Amino acid sequence: MDDRPIVKFDTETRSGYSLPDVGKHRYLSHPKADVLMFSYKIGAAPTQLWEPGMPVPMYFQNTRSFRFAAFNAAFDQLVINVFSKKYGFGKLRTDQMVDVMAIAARYGLPQSLGKLGKALDVKLMKIARGTVLKNKICSPNKKGVFEYTKEEFQEFREYCIRDTDSMDEIIRKLPASTLSDNEQKIWEETAYINARGVPIDAWSVSQIQKIIEHYTKKQEPYVGWVTKQQIQTVGQTDKIKIWCAEKGVELPNLQVQTVAKVVDDLEGEEVLSTDYSAVLELLKLRQLLGGAAHKKFKRLFDMTVDNIIYDNLRYHGAGTGRTTGGGFQLLNLPRAKVTLKEGQSYNEAVIALIAQFFNLKILKHSDPLGESKKLVRPMIKAPKKQTLLVADWGSIEYILLMYYAGEWEKVEKFRNGNDPYIDFATELFHVAYADVTDQMRQEAKPPVLGSGYMLGSGVPRRDPPGGLIGYALGYGVVMTDNQAEFATNTYRNEHPRVKASWYALKNAAIRAIKYPGIPVSVSIEDGAHSLNTSFLCAKDRTGRSWLILTLPSGRQLYYCEPWIAMGKYGEVIKHKGVNPDTKQWGVVYLKPQRIIENIIQGLGRDILQECTPRLRQAKFNIVLTVYDEVGCVSPVEGSQQRLREMEKIMCIPPSWMPQLPLRADGYISKRYKKA
Fold this sequence. Notes:
single chain, alpha+beta, Nucleotidyltransferase, domain 5, Alpha-Beta Plaits, six-stranded antiparallel β-sheet, globular
C-alpha cells in the first residue's frame, strides 16, 4: 500500500493540433504546444493555480515524495513530463499516478468528469461553459491564431480550478479513493503498453491516404448529381434519411448492415421506379465513400508520431473489466483480407497491393477504397530487423463457460483436442465427427458462441431479426425458424449445467438484494457443483448500495444501487448504470444472460491480465492486446523459438482454475493480419 500524500491536479494545454483527432503524443509534439496552467490541491487546503512565470510548487519539483491524482491521469502525466525541462517540473512515474477515471470505470460509473459528477450528485460540478472556452483558448482559429479576451481567460482559470475541486469531491464520493493494489498494477501495465505504442508503416499510410483523398474528391460530386444538389456528401446522414424517406424508402439509421440490406432489397427488384433507382444510386455511393477504410487511414495518418501510434488501449473500458480500444481502435478493424496469388506469401501480397497505390494503378480498379480496406491491418508493421509475434487463446469463452458450469465431458473433449464447433455439429446434423463438413462447422458456430449466453432462437421473427437468427447473420449463416429453434433446444439439452447456471445466478442475485449484508454463494444441482461465485448487496463508505459479484478469480464486479421490480415473467433486477445504447447514466436491467456473459468475459480478462506480466518478465515487448489476442515485437533471429515460448506461457492455467485447458496459437509476420 502506497501511503504517500496525494496531490490532485488538472492541466490545461494548447496546441496547433486537435487532441481528439491526433491523440496526446502528437498533440503535445506540435511547435505551439504548451502548458497554459494547472490547478492543484493537497488535503483540505484550498485549490491553487500555477501559470508559466510563477515559481513551480514544491509538489511538482520533488515529485518522488507524492502521488498524483488526475482524471485520465496518463494525459496529465505526459504533459508534466513533456514540459519538465522547460519549466523545471520533476518527472512523474506511472506508478505514482492515481487515475480517477479508472476508479470510476472500475465501478461501472461514467468515464467523463461532467457525467460522473452528475451521477454522484456532486455540488461542485464541472463548469458547462468550459468547452466553449477550451475551443477558443486552447485551439487556434482558421487563421492559426488563438483568439480570446482577458475576461474569457480569467473564466478559464476559474474553470481549471473548478475541475480539480469537482474531482476532489468526486474522489470523496467514489466507493474508494484509489484502485486496489492489483488493479493499479493492471492500470500501470496498460499504460506501459500504451506508451510503447504500435509500430506503423507510416510511408505507405501517407501514400494510401493521398490516393483515398484524391479518389473521394472525384466521386463526391456524384452525390450532388444524384440528389439534384440536395445532398453534397455521404456524411450528411440526417439529410440522406429525409431524402430517402421522401422517395419512399424509410431508413432507421445508416449503419453498414442497414444500408447493405436496403441495397440488396432494391437490387433484387425486377423493375425500379425513378425514385427508387435514385435511392439505390445514393446508397451505393454511401457504401463506396462512407466506409471505414478511409476513416481508418485518416486516423492512422493523424495519430502517427515517428512511425508509432500510441494509446490504443483503454483500461476497464467494459463493465466486465476488459480492456477496450482507444485512439486508432484496434478492436474495430476491417475484416477484409489481401488476396494471395498462388505461391505468394502474405507479406509479398501486401507489398504488391501497396505498390499499386504508389504507381497509381489502383485508380484503374473498380473499387480502390475496397482495396485500401484490405491494407488497414497490414499497416501495423514491425521495425527493421524485428517481426510481430501474435497469438490468441482458442475458443477461450467456450472453455471458460464449460469449466465454470461443470460440463466436464465437454472440458475433457476440449483438452483432448476436439473442435467445439465440430462437436456441436455432430449433434445438429447427426453425423460422425470425421464427417462434419466446413459448412456444417460454420453453421454450428453461432449457437455455440451465442446460446451459452442464454440467446433465444429469435422465433417469432422480428425485423431486423433477433435472437440466434439475427446473431447467425453476422457469421454469414441464414437460419430458418425450425433450424434456429432446433439449434437452441439442442444446445440447452446438451449443456444442462450451463442452462442451470443461468437461473441459479439470477436467483442468487435476487436473494442478495432482498437480504443485504448476507453473502449468497451460487451452486447448481442441489449443491453438487459450486460455481465459486457469490453475490453480496452492501453499502460503500458513502452509504450507496452496490450488488457485488465475486468471480472465481476473486475479482469483483459492481452494479450500482440495485433493486427488484416485477417484469412480464416475474422478478427482474434493475440498477443504475451506463446505458449501452445511449451511453447515458440511467436505469438498466441486469438480465440472467448479462450476468453469465459478464462472468465469462470477466474471467477471460483475468486470464489475460495474469498472463501479460508473465510475458513481460520473459522479456516480451507487448504492443497490443485485442480481445483474446496478444501482439509483441521481437527480433527476427530466434523468432520461432520465441513464439513457442509465448504460446507456452499463454497456456499456463490460472491459479483459480488450475485444471483449465488452454490453447494458444500464433503466427510470425512482418505485418499484422487477421489470423
